[in-house]
């Protein structure tokens, strides 16, 4: 068989250093200047997230008070039309809100406490109800555990002593959390009062800076943000209140215990996309499983709530808000993940309003850039 000679690699092609492109100092500076805006924006975003994460105790009450004032503003204006001064109207609305919150907590504390006392027996009741379904799974788990014990006995090694550090007591943690929550609640109420006494927030937020370019465009952007977020929050609040009312009526018609509690949960947690409805659906399913005996009765309450939630998310809200505020589900989910990680439950409530603000600001910034390009082209 003839062999084909392998061509040797020329020595000139081995380990030849590749010279970087020769750039003049001016060209290098242009490259650096072109990359600087993106780097500055990235660093500013990271610094902002870092600040908002560690200053959550201060920033979250400000955001909650701002959004709460937007929702309550129509009530203040209604009292003003009746001749009541603006500050007095704001005080009346806030006192009514605080009274409603306290009354709701008092009325709902009894059923909530009953369910907390039943927690030890709930697990046994659930196991008894779903025992036919979980029997085979439990048998497989026990078989796997027995095999693991045999393997551990075959390769037994002396256990090392472990040092445990005692964590703060539950009482200390609960006391600190309650104190912090009370202080934040007072801050939210005070800031909401001040926001409600201001007629035009963007007029106070943006000073008249003569040398600022696109000053009118920025004023238009802030006005658009306030108008759009006001419409979004007020419509969303009305929709979630109706969802809570319908949920309470449905639970009452299906003989679920504490229907008012389920209505309040559905209305409040409705502000948390995906997570809130999942929590309410899970709680209704568990309570229905513990309350009723037949599978038909057990399935009806979660199905009723699921139908109401699906109708609200896919038909009612898109129809009322329109296409202008149509949000990408992926963007909503990512916003939920981000702000829940940064601010916890408060971040989950504020995730969608913040996303709406970001979208509006991005649209106006794109408009500013286009107008700047048109001016430079002329």
How would you characterize the overall build of this protein?
The chain is mainly α and 378 residues long. Among the domains are: 58-119 and 180-202, no CATH class; 230-323; 327-378. Helices cover 79% and strands 0% of the residues. Helix 2 crosses helix 8 (215-253) and helix 8 (215-253) packs antiparallel against helix 11 (295-321). The longest helix has 39 residues, at 215-253. The termini are far apart. The model has no long low-confidence stretch (mean pLDDT 78).
Q: What is the chain-wise order of helices and strands? A: HHHHHHHHHHHHH
Tell me the number of helical segments per DSSP (H or I, 4 or more residues long): 13
Give the low-confidence spans.
Answer: none
Structural class: mainly alpha
Mean pLDDT: 78
Sheet with most strands: none
Radius of gyration, whole Å:
30 Å
Number of separate strands: 0
The helix fraction, in percent, is over 70%
Strand content: under 5%
Q: How is the quaternary structure best described?
A: single chain
Distance from N terminus to C terminus (CA atoms, Å) equals 76 Å
């Amino acid at each position: 068989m003839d062999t084909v000679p392998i061509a040797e690699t020329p020595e000139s092609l081995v380990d030849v250093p590749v010279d970087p492109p020769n750039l003049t100092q001016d060209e290098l500076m242009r490259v650096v200047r072109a990359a600087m805006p993106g780097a500055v924006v990235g660093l500013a975003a990271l610094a902002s997230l870092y600040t908002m994460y560690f200053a959550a105790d201060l920033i979250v009450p400000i955001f909650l008070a701002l959004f709460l004032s937007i929702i309550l503003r129509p009530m203040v204006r209604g009292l003003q039309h009746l001749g009541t001064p603006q500050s007095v109207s704001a005080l009346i609305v806030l006192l009514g809100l605080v009274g409603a919150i306290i009354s709701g907590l008092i009325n709902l504390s009894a059923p909530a406490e009953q369910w907390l006392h039943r927690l030890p027996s709930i697990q046994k009741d659930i196991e008894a109800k779903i025992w036919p379904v979980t029997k085979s799974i439990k048998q497989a788990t026990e078989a796997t555990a027995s095999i693991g014990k045999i393997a551990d006995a075959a390769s037994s090694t002396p256990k090392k002593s472990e040092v445990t550090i005692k964590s703060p007591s539950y009482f200390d943690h609960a006391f600190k959390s309650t104190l912090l929550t009370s202080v934040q609640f007072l801050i939210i109420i005070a800031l909401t009062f001040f926001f409600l006494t201001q007629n035009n927030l963007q007029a106070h937020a943006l000073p008249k800076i003569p040398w600022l370019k696109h000053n009118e465009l920025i004023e238009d952007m802030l006005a658009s943000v306030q108008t759009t977020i006001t419409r979004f929050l007020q419509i969303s609040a009305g929709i979630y209140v109706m969802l809570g009312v319908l949920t309470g009526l449905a639970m009452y018609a299906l003989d679920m215990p504490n229907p008012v509690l389920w209505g309040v949960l559905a209305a409040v947690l409705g502000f948390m996309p995906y997570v809130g409805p999942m929590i309410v659906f899970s709680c209704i399913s568990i309570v229905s499983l513990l309350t009723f005996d037949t599978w038909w009765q057990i399935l009806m309450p979660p199905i009723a709530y699921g139908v109401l939630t699906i109708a609200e998310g896919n038909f009612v809200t898109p129809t009322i808000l329109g296409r202008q505020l149509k949000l990408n589900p992926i963007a909503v989910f990512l916003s939920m993940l981000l702000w829940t990680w940064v601010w916890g439950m408060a971040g989950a409530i504020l995730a969608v309003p913040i996303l709406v603000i970001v979208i509006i600001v991005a649209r106006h910034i794109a408009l500013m850039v286009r107008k700047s390009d048109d001016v430079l082209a002329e």
